[in-house]
Amino acid sequence: MISQLPKWVEIGAFSLACVAGCINAIGLLGFEHQSVSHLSGTATLLGTGFLSSSLQKTFHLVGILFSFMGGACIAGFLLHGSTLKLGRHYDTVLFIESIFLCVSSLLLISGSFYGHFLASAACGLQNALATTYNGAIIRTTHVTGIFTDLGIMFGSVFKWQDIDRRKAKLFIFI
Questions:
Q1: Rounded CA separation 127/125 (Å)
Q2: Residue 140 pLDDT > 70, yes or no?
Q3: Which of 22, 66, 87, 117 is buried most, with the most CB atoms less than 10 Å from its CB?
Q4: pLDDT in tens, 18-40
Q5: Cβ atoms of 156 and 79 closer than 8 Å
Q6: Whole-number Å distance between alpha carbons of 75 and 138
Q7: Above 90 in pLDDT, residue 69?
């Protein structure tokens, strides 16, 4: 375990946190005033509004949840290991994130709420990148972490790698 992170990791983490904050601010200021990176609130809105909300709003909320998990799945497919080391496709993940954000911006500017889905997928990519680095064990208080972990697991399945099925079932039922 690293007792003190290298300076470049601290700067990178700060930069990525700023990017995530900007993405979320754009989501909050946009079409549905909806967070795209904090899935606990999204899941709560979905649960409380499931019977009373319109089909479009329900689709929007479900789309944000699954887009985030899809982004985490892509990162889970591309990344491996829990130590920070060159050659782990971090650049590829960040490049995909930037493409998602650019296309998301174009969609949001044109008034399409589908831009929220790509922004959420970008957040899922970034969250999974950080999770695969620091090796989070289990999360029980935030749905965002659970969706990230499930996405990483599904990414591993797509690479024909074994996953902890018991842990996957636990996450699905949490």
A1: 6
A2: no
A3: 117
A4: 887 788 777 777 656 777 877 88
A5: no
A6: 18
A7: yes
- Map the chain to HEC letters: CCCCCCHHHHHHHHHHHHHHHHHHHHHHHCCCCCCCCCHHHHHHHHHHHCCCCCHHHHHHHHHHHHHHHHHHHHHHHHCCCCCCCCCCCHHHHHHHHHHHHHHHHHHHHCCCCHHHHHHHHHHHHHHHHHHHHHCCCCCCCCHHHHHHHHHHHHHHHHCCCCCCHHHHHHHHHC
| 8 Å CB contact between 32 and 53 | no
**Amino acid residing at 122:** A
pLDDT tens sequence across 87-114:
567 889 889 999 999 999 899 889 888 9
Would the CA dihedral through 92, 94, 97, 99 be positive or negative?
A: negative
Nearest to 124 by CA among 38, 40, 50: 38
Residue position matching structure tokens 């989070």: 136
Counting Cβ atoms within 10 Å, is residue 168 exposed (0-12), middle (13-18) or buried (19+)?
A: middle
